[in-house]
Amino acid sequence: MMSSKDLAYQMTIYDWELFNCVHELELIYHTFGRHNFKKTTANLDLFLRRFNEIQFWVVTEICLCSQLSKRVQLLKKFIKIAAHCKEYKNLNSFFAIVMGLSNVAVSRLALTWEKLPSKFKKFYAEFESLMDPSRNHRAYRLTVAKLEPPLIPFMPLLIKDMTFTHEGNKTFIDNLVNFEKMVCAVL
After folding, report:
1. Where is each Ras-GEF domain found (predicted)?
2. DSSP code for 166
């Protein structure tokens, strides 16, 4: 019953609270291995869980809707919510919604997608292009570079970047700390 814009706004407020609680060190602990630090990453875990909850919420709502016309309306609503999340610079929820719509359980609903107005198909195609993993998520990175803070980033990609930086570079070179790696990990 809530408007798409209001729902996206409320999601963004909640996501911001969760994201704001994540301390930078939690990203380091997560990347370098929690067991090495004996520290908690509870806030990061909660924020990552939120991504999965939104993604599966989208899939569940669409798949539980038995009437074609209502399912098309629901699909339109989720595309609108995603657009507003992007507008609010909540890229984490934006991606979660788009990935939910891309889920095989939803994408195989051919009749539903067929009935979706072309305007919404176009929006969805643009959203999918932002998720394109080619060239190391170039489309997403260019979009983020143009945005003014504050924003809520797509956390799984941030964690992937930190993991590859960690695993792809030696921590010690000639028994000396590789500070270049450590600076990249913190940035």
Report:
1. 3-187
2. H
CA proximity to 81, closest of 137, 12, 157: 12
Whether the pTM exceeds 0.90: the reply is no
Express each pLDDT in 10-21 by its tens digit: 999 999 999 999
The total of structural domains in the chain comes to 1
The greatest distance separating any two alpha carbons of the chain, rounded to the nearest whole angstrom, comes to 66
Q: Is 136 exposed, middle or buried (0-12, 13-18, 19+ CB in 10 A)?
A: exposed
C-alpha–C-alpha distance, residues 168 and 49, integer Å = 26
Question: Is the sign of the CA dihedral 161, 144, 133, 95 positive or negative?
Answer: positive
In-domain check, residue 159? no
Length of the chain: 187
In one letter, which amino acid is 79? Answer: I
